[in-house]
Amino acid sequence: MSGRQSGRPTLEQVAARAGVGRGTVSRVINGSPRVSEQTRTAVARAVAELGYVPNQAARALAGSRTDAIALVIPEAEARLFAEPYFLDLIRGVSAELAEADKQLLLTLVRSEQERQRFEQYLAAQRVDGVLLASVHGDDPLPDRIRELGLPVVMNGRRAEAEPVPYVDSDNIGAGRAAVAHLVGRGRGRIATVTGPLDMYVARARLGGYRAGLAEAGLSPDEALVSAGDFTEEGGRRAMRLLLDRSPDLDAVFAASDVMAAGARAALREAGRRVPDDVALVGVDDSPVARLMDPPLTSVRQPIEEMGRTMARMLLQEIAEAPQEPRRHVLPTELIVRESC
Amino acid sequence: MSGRQSGRPTLEQVAARAGVGRGTVSRVINGSPRVSEQTRTAVARAVAELGYVPNQAARALAGSRTDAIALVIPEAEARLFAEPYFLDLIRGVSAELAEADKQLLLTLVRSEQERQRFEQYLAAQRVDGVLLASVHGDDPLPDRIRELGLPVVMNGRRAEAEPVPYVDSDNIGAGRAAVAHLVGRGRGRIATVTGPLDMYVARARLGGYRAGLAEAGLSPDEALVSAGDFTEEGGRRAMRLLLDRSPDLDAVFAASDVMAAGARAALREAGRRVPDDVALVGVDDSPVARLMDPPLTSVRQPIEEMGRTMARMLLQEIAEAPQEPRRHVLPTELIVRESC
DNA sequence: CAACGACGTGGGAGCGCTCCCATCCGGGAC
DNA sequence: GTCCCGGATGGGAGCGCTCCCACGTCGTTG
What we know:
2 copies of one chain form a homodimer. By secondary structure, chain A is of the alpha/beta class. In chain A, 46% of the residues lie in helices and 16% in strands. Chain A has 3 domains: 11-54, lambda repressor-like DNA-binding domains (434 Repressor (Amino-terminal Domain), Orthogonal Bundle); 68-168 and 304-330, Response regulator (Rossmann fold), CATH 3.40.50; 171-300, 3-Layer(aba) Sandwich (Rossmann fold), CATH 3.40.50. In chain A, the strands form 2 sheets. In chain A, strands 2-1-3-4-5-11 form a 6-stranded parallel sheet, with helices on both faces. The model of chain A is unreliable at 1-5 (pLDDT under 50).
């Protein structure tokens, strides 16, 4: 209730009130150990009395660090995965950053022009590091950012071997688990609707599918593989193609829930019952899976946890104290419902 | 390709290169008209040659404006509306801000403690203004922020009469449109599953439902009104209750798609066919609506447009040049599908 | 008992920009 | 020719902080 007369208080004013020097207050604020207990309390009281809050701009200017990190999401993908994927990711990142008292700058990139503008930001020293979601197979951005000297962590990777630090989910394991489950239910003609194969995530899930077949002693059959594009319509088309080519299939592993929904519609059109005639498994465990009829068995990714891990890794890179490895592959989990 | 030797270039260096003073370069950068054409070009060339990008922190410190705005989303709601609602909103906000070259700081608030921390940020002068999504009926935050002297714009409102600038969708119109459609299809016993009535949005949709009945000359019946909580489970419970109380109902207006999905499940359990026995309408036009069986008729809100409008309003408030009114109610639109 | 670290502290020197005032220049009015 | 005015320009004075060096003031060592 005091000392509020002229704008926000500054370090200087706190120092005067506590009867110490500017440097000392700064030390207390930043938790330096080189301050006596007595002084510390005196300063803390002055801070409380004046309601002092450090000016972020001044801090950033003097200390050349912003306490903010950027999360970049390509707009096209945000639309594609309309699912809560990105929200979950954001939630995880946000939670971890909040604990570290860092700001989250969200950047939706929707055009090449905006991507360039974003590189400008980086150059303007607005953030201490960058989180990249959903990187394309040939995206040069991660490397560009590193050239600028900024720490980066990606969600997913561009290829099996990825030089830039990343957090991915075990997409191969996801495919294997799905196939194993279907095999366990007695299915022997298991088809798959893949994502676009220029994305590593799609290739990995397909690889898992193949590995699953091999482990079950089933021989691969390219007629049972059809490429979708992670959209519902794409799933529908791919499913029609599969039914056409291999009418005897008795199960389908769709590389995403949305495609599974499309496949389900195509199955209905074709008069196939789920799960009686054809069992169905998706990936993502999105709300859509729960609401489908019948509810969809799906492989869950720990999306929020990926977000948290990314943020944690980035903070360590920024602190130049990477304690964890620079690559993380988090486990997936099969959620069994009535679709198989 | 030049002058890259010592960190990023500063204003001073650009000035030296262009053979002018610091002030002049600043004027050019900021588009001041008081610069001769000739000087302007010379400076522009120096900027390009050195790859100069203004340091944001220095700008903020000297100019006391940050070119960043905060978007605050209560975590609980983000979970509730798991739908793409917030992503769409973010998309709109982001698009508008990108055009104005402003940064978007996303803040997910998940506890009272974090809310207080957020107020600290504001005091730390990190942002020029605040966008508030999904405000509770009795949320004091909007007023608190205004007390701090920061411009605010909310998404939705706390009550019919709302002092703080806001952008809302026409929820009353949504209810009326839904009912009118059902009446047009020959339904006469139209029930509704509402949202939690301590939220204005829920009350408004209920109000629209009632207005719709009145306009059709149907008499209201409280046995046809049941409160949900915007969750699937809540929708299911409310629907069961309605079937119990009014077995003769022939249509339901659910105040959200998610609740409609719950209601649909309850109808299935009860052996009622949709739309033959009971017609169903939701609100949001979310992906869930499209994927339901049968696909759900739903009232679409212009979410992304709301985001854009909010951002535009806020920018005007910041510039102290509000050209638009401080309240916006955007129209909704009925998307007809097979559920009625 | 002098010399010497170690610790706690004060405050100068910037960080890179914006704001603003003083200065300069040229052309028109008298 | 002199005076005046307005537009263009240079650069000082901060903005509020961090960094770091210098300065006591002790307790300890030889």
